[in-house]
Amino acid sequence: EVQLVESGGGLVQPGGSLRLSCAASGFTFSSYEMNWVRQAPGKGLEWVSYISSSGSTIYYADSVKGRFTISRDNAKNSLYLQMNSLRAEDTAVYYCARGGGDYLAEFDYWGQGTLVTVSS
Amino acid sequence: SYVLTQPPSVSVAPGKTARITCGGNNIGSKSVHWYQQKPGQAPVLVIYYDSDRPSGIPERFSGSNSGNTATLTISRVEAGDEADYYCQVWDSSSDHPKVVFGGGTKLTVL
Question: Which of A84, A108, B54, B96 has a C-alpha 20 to 30 A away from that of A15?
């Protein structure tokens, strides 16, 4: 059974940093693209970042480029999101989502999410 | 940047057919994926590559995509289908592809 479990969320002050993790199990993690998607309270889905299966290709949404860094450790079956210079508008539930297997495909499995609150 | 437009809400009586649209410039040339999200839960993929259905998704869910509109159709709607639905594409028009989500449609079962 495919499982994605996010962790690392919490309350952080504006300008602060946080590192999210996503532990994957039930599939060959190193074979799949991964993404981070966020959802502000009461709002819709917003894609944050993409990383290829090997980690060699990375894309970011304009809203986080230069502040967030996506990475992965295939030996540990884990995905990460380092978030720096956090702003109030970064407050959201952050989901990790698996790519469907093709290049730039659908998101076929999602974690339950971890809440990040940026507030003083 | 590429924009996907969904109606904020759609209402349908039980047993009837719900159609949720997703508009975008020449969206028919892109692959469209659809997600269902119930309150407090993570999104679930219900349609991928315009019209394919993941295992475990009822045949009542179907999709189409042509011209400037993609459509998610839910036949014989049940109370359990009440949820937010989002369409999604990859915008690969630049050398830095981006994911675009529609704003979401709240499906209300009357």
Answer: B96
B84 in helix, strand or coil? strand
**Residue A21 CB neighbours (<10 A):** 17
What count of CB pairs under 8 Å joins A to B? 60
d(CA B37, CA B19): 16
Half-sphere exposure of A94 (CA within 13 A, CB side): 29
The token duo for A12 is 């952080």
Comparing CA positions, the residue from B110, B107, B90, B109 lying closest to residue B36 is B107
- What is the rounded CA–CA span in Å between residue A87 and residue B79? 38
3-class DSSP assignment, residue B65 = strand
Disruptive mutation site among A36, A38, A45, A114 for chain B (greatest number of B CBs within 10 Å)? A45
Touching B: A residues 18-77, CB under 8 Å: 35, 37, 44-47, 50, 59, 61-62
Start-to-end Cα distance in chain B:
36
Express each pLDDT in A83-111 by its tens digit.
Answer: 999 999 999 999 999 999 888 899 999 99
* Cα distance between residue B66 and residue B24, in whole Å: 10
- CB within 8 Å of B13: residues ≥ 6 apart: B77, B109, B110
